Amino acid sequence: MSAMVVVFVSNAPPRLRGRLAVWLLEVRAGVYVGNYSKRTREMIWEQVTGMIDDGDAIMAWSSPTDAGFEVETVGQNRRRPVDFDGLKLIAFDTRKSPV
Fold first, then answer.
1. What digits encode the pLDDT tens for the residues 73-85?
2. Is residue 20 one of the residues assigned to a domain?
3. pTM reported for the whole predicted model
4. The CATH number of the domain where 10 resides is what?
5. Rg (CA), the chain
């Protein structure tokens, strides 16, 4: 069964952006969308985590959860997903990011 997949990258190296463009449609700079199976989605995420370097990325996909989606992140970002009684929420870290 396939599901909608959205990947957002920030400060990503050109080789990763090119690799994502092979599998997903870049609808805006750094925002990629597609419709893939779990196996393909996991393969795409492996490439993101292996090639992100100093950038950061988030992947969200439709899932039969209460929220209707799941999310994963990699890299340094002030927003991070947290589980709140089974519901995914985004926590915002107000501290400055390390430079």
1. 998 887 888 888 8
2. yes
3. 0.84
4. 3.30.70.240
5. 14
